[in-house]
Amino acid sequence: MTSSEIIAKKIAKDLLRIRAVFFRPEEPFVWASGIKSPVYCDNRLTLTAPDVRDDVENALAETVFREYPGTQVLMGTSTAGIAHAAITGHLMGLPMGYVRSGQKDHGRQNQIEGRLEKGQKVVVIEDLISTGGSVIEVVEALREAGAEVLGIASIFTYGMQKGIDRLAAAGVKNVSLTDFDTIAQAAAEEGYIAGADIARLIAFRNNPSDESWIGK
User: What global pTM score does this model have?
Assistant: First the structure.
């Protein structure tokens, strides 16, 4: 296994253990969009589990160092990426800031918080990526401010085709610590789900609007 694969498996097991990500194929969750999902994800729980937090932040720092040489600033997504950008920035000795989902309607009306100079090389820190819409808005805001966005470092990605296509169209690279397939495999190995459930989970990931995986 490569170092990236080792990290992906370790982070997957960490997230499953603290139930930041867990699967419930027999009783799906319902997203705000109405889509039924066999998976629940709340990576904010990593912040309240110090050992997992250490694994995540060190892995993010290693990923930024390996994948994005020359990084000058880390920018977290609001709100889930802020703490991860701050801790990773501390580990790497880099400045950090964050990007709001929209401009404030008071004060200086900033969307980007923290000092950012035109031409600086930035990496965006995100907790998870599904369809990619929100993180691309962050990238675009940074580009409009004159930053050179090297890419995104995220904790988890669903690997949904819509997200992959959006990132490609925006011309932005994403490197995730772990992904849906790795977590599904780890969940089966650790006994959180049955091995037969993996195919159902992948069917959901490949086409979230198709509910034919339910009850199989």
Answer: 0.93
